[in-house]
Amino acid sequence: EGEESEGNDTCMICFEQWTNTGEHRVVCLGCGHLFGASCIQKWLSERKHCPTCNHAAKRRDIRTVYACNLVAVDTAE
């Protein structure tokens, strides 16, 4: 696992693990990038773009992701 699993369950703003409830629950923007809710809300109150891809974004674009366990499987070769 080690390097392969790094980043699959962490917020790209604070690098802490997100949760499935509470202030840091996993959310996404229209572009599909995932963040902790509290981090992306703060980010978008100061900036108007996704911190990962720079796609234009507003706070109303934040969508809750409903998942008990979320694991990204890297299928790239």
UniProtKB/TrEMBL annotation:
SUPFAM superfamilies: RING/U-box (SSF57850)
Entry keyword annotation includes Signal: no
Any GO MF annotation of the entry: ubiquitin-protein transferase activity
Keywords of the record: Metal-binding, Zinc, Zinc-finger
SMART domains named among the record's database cross-references: RING
InterPro entries reported for this sequence: RFWD3, Znf_RING, Znf_RING/FYVE/PHD
CC terms in the record's Gene Ontology section: nucleus
Example GO BP: interstrand cross-link repair
Positions of the RING-type domain: 11-54
Keyword Zinc: yes
Protein name: RING-type domain-containing protein
Organism per entry: Guillardia theta (strain CCMP2712)
